[in-house]
Amino acid sequence: MVIISGSASRNLAKRIAEALSLPLGNPEISKFSNDELRVRITESKTGHAAIVVQSLSAPVDSHILEFNFICDALHRMGVTDIYPVIPWLAYSKQDKVFRPGEPLSVKVVAKILQVVPMKRLYTFDLHNTAILGFFDIPVTNLTARPLFVEYFRKRISRQTVVVAPDAGAIKISTLFAQELGVPAAYIDKKRDLVTGEVSVSGLSRKVKDAEVILLDDMIVTGGTIRETAKFLKTRGVGTITVAATHHLYVPGAQEAIEASGVDHVVVTDTVEPAVKSDKLHVLSVSGIIAEALSELLN
Ligand code: R5P
């Protein structure tokens, strides 16, 4: 068994390899002069099984193609058992045909990712568990929640309230609040399907002087967090800490979140950190992945 890292997840792959005491391969990734992607596995011996770690962060389509090329190269080298670890599955917000004329994009991406035969895919906090059905192979949908529970358990007080920024986050936020033993509240959020703009119109409980933990699966533009933070401020909130599994580091998003009055942002390394800030704290999912993969080594 060997761990092969795509260019999107070098640090995470290194941590997983160390945790499992497995050799780590970093393929050569370059471009031909005509802009075509070029991939080469440099290990001469790989054995029959490989774990391929590649987050589908920006540049998204290039990282998808790179993943496919790595898997194809391994397949041609005689690796029969390929286990992809895709900590952040891009296109997962495009999980429905929202308006007539649109594709079911994440289903197409699921097919593309499976072009080379593989055994089982490992991913994190999928935006919608219906996406599991778009894959023909088994998928393990891991969660970063235990990391957040451990992190926040030492930091909660009698004022702590977990807030779900939209209807999609209610179930997970309630569970998280129960695990921490604190109350939960829900925001009424709407997003314009054409402009992407977010608006907030209501909140299910009082949050005056509360220490809010805003739990979401991902930060993309930061619009959801920004608008929620602004709304919470109008209700006299004390502090706001954001906890989100995936931070996609869209340029300007972190700065805009901080400008909206958020005190701290706690995320994981499903996407390699691309900004530095005193207000940003990154927890590693490497331990959770290593534990899940250890079943393959027994
Ligand atoms: C929405 O359904 C998701 O759970 C997130 O709230 C959303 O994707 C965050 O995106 P943005 O940062 O662009 O508001």
From TrEMBL:
- Outline the extent of the Phosphoribosyltransferase domain: 158-246
One BP term from GO = purine nucleotide biosynthetic process
Domain Ribose-phosphate pyrophosphokinase N-terminal: where?
1-115
UniProt EC number: 2.7.6.1
- Which InterPro entries did the record assign? Pribosyltran_N (IPR029099), PRTase-like (IPR029057), PRTase_dom (IPR000836), Rib-P_diPkinase (IPR005946)
Q: Which UniProt keywords apply?
A: ATP-binding, Kinase, Magnesium, Metal-binding, Nucleotide biosynthesis, Nucleotide-binding, Transferase
Q: Which reaction equation describes what this protein catalyses?
A: D-ribose 5-phosphate + ATP = 5-phospho-alpha-D-ribose 1-diphosphate + AMP + H(+)
| Source organism superkingdom | Bacteria
Q: Name one GO cellular component term.
A: ribose phosphate diphosphokinase complex
Task: Using the UniProt record, name the top-level EC class of this enzyme in a single word.
Answer: transferase
Q: Does the keyword Translocase apply?
A: no
Q: Which NCBIfam families match?
A: ribP_PPkin (TIGR01251)
Protein name in UniProt? ribose-phosphate diphosphokinase
Query: What family, per the record?
Result: Belongs to the ribose-phosphate pyrophosphokinase family.
Among Gene3D superfamilies, the record links this protein to: 3.40.50.2020
